[in-house]
Amino acid sequence: MNQTIIIAILVKDRIKEAGKTLNVLAQNADIICNRLGFHEVTDNVCSRVGVIILHIKGGPEKWQNLLNDLSLIGGIEVKTMLFN
User: Which element (helix H / strand E) includes 79?
Assistant: First the structure.
């Protein structure tokens, strides 16, 4: 059965956690269809908090590997949406 999963990642401190998070995403690049990342930027500040939204392809076994890898990173929060 084809399913679509969207994974949202809240990076609570981009300076500390972005490198680890991006490394995990690079290791799982073969299942990432689309990736959108953003954080607040103004003339005076660049937010340390960021959000990454992923559109994932492949079966649940591949999604679970990615989710397991992300769960090992402290300082991020992961939420998923699954569509049948």
Answer: strand 76-83
Give, in order, the Cα–Cα distances in Å from 81 to each of 13, 40, 54. Answer: 23, 24, 10
What's the pTM value of the predicted model, to 2 decimals? 0.87
**CATH fold for domain 4-83:** Alpha-Beta Plaits (3.30.70)
Q: How many CB atoms lie within 10 A of CB 14?
A: 17
User: Angle 60-71/14-27 helices, nearest 10 degrees?
Assistant: 150
Give me the residues paired with residue 54 across strands: 7, 35
pLDDT digits (tens, 9 = 90+) for 17-45: 888 999 999 999 999 999 999 877 767 77
35 close to 52: Cβ distance less than 8 angstroms: yes
